[in-house]
TrEMBL record, chain A:
Keywords: Membrane, Transmembrane, Transmembrane helix. It comes from Paracoccus methylarcula. The chain crosses the membrane at residues 6-29, 41-61, 73-101. It comes from the Bacteria. Pfam families: AzlD (PF05437). This is AzlD domain-containing protein.
Automatic annotation (TrEMBL), chain B:
It comes from Paracoccus methylarcula. Its main location: membrane. This is Branched-chain amino acid transporter AzlC. The lineage of its organism: Bacteria, Pseudomonadati, Pseudomonadota, Alphaproteobacteria, Rhodobacterales. It is found in: Cell membrane. One of its GO terms (biological process) is L-valine transmembrane transport.
Amino acid sequence: MIGDGAFWSLTVLLGIGTFLIRFSFLGFLGDRELPDWLLLHLRYVPVAVFPALITPLILWPEATGGQLDPARLIAAAAAFAVGCRINVIGAILAGMATLYLMQYLLG
Amino acid sequence: MTAQRSAFLAGFRACAPFSLIIVPFSTLFGVVARDAGLDVLQVMAMAAIVIAGASQFTAIALLQDNAPVFIALLAALAVNLRMALYSAALQPHLGRARIGTRMLMSYLMIDQSYAVAARHFDMTPAMSLDEKVAYYMGCAMLCCPLWYGGCLAGALIGQRIPASLSLDFAIPICFISLIAPLMRTLPHIVAALVAVTAAILLSSLPGSFSLLISAIAAMIAGAQSELWLRRRARTVSE
């Protein structure tokens, strides 16, 4: 469960922070240029944050009490393979379909 | 029909194909957020206040995992930092609009509307400021209502989906789908591998610290591999 206090403080702060990021150059930074080292690191934010975030969710899912679950591992691999070759929505569908198939096959 | 009106409609039409991405993604957010225990009002408040899908998923995943609010905030903001680049790219085109208009355009800035508008502005430099604003608004007026609508639809049907459908796993699957297409260059692959390895090695730390350290290590690894590749390319060419 997610507590009300945590939810609302996070939502409001995230809303303000995200607005300031979007407004930055359009609003107050004008045509200033970002330093190269920052641009370099910004490129790797998605591939750094998302894998670190989901690795524990995939290996030790709460729904199985933190136990390694072969069905989920295979589903994750299927989503990754389809995502590399086709597209985002295809990968989501392939991942969830594989999960259901594996849960059915593996009982 | 005025030039502004036709620019608005052109932007609206150019973004139409993205409904195929926005509708399922937002619906999934509504369903997953309800599954995590939010009520319909909370789902819609988050969709309207934040209006940035990947960071909303990040925030929900971390809150559900009982991470401290500031860690969830940091991770979700990091995910949205890319929008500073969008803001910088749009500035030469839209930076002279009125302040209120710029605030509205900032609020409505999402991946799809940015990508379509920035590409169009670069290809059609003759557009006036008013036409560019109208085109951008056309993009946003297609994408953003679909985002709210999808979240609402997902939130309303969410509770009727049985637990046996394992929707908890929709969050990792979503993120895998977002990063898989990025695995096109060596530095991106290195960064992802470092992130996964560090997250496993540090898993005994409280979840939020392992995320923070792993993500920073992975970003540095990606950046350093890119610099290394550049240096190598230079020595080879000399």
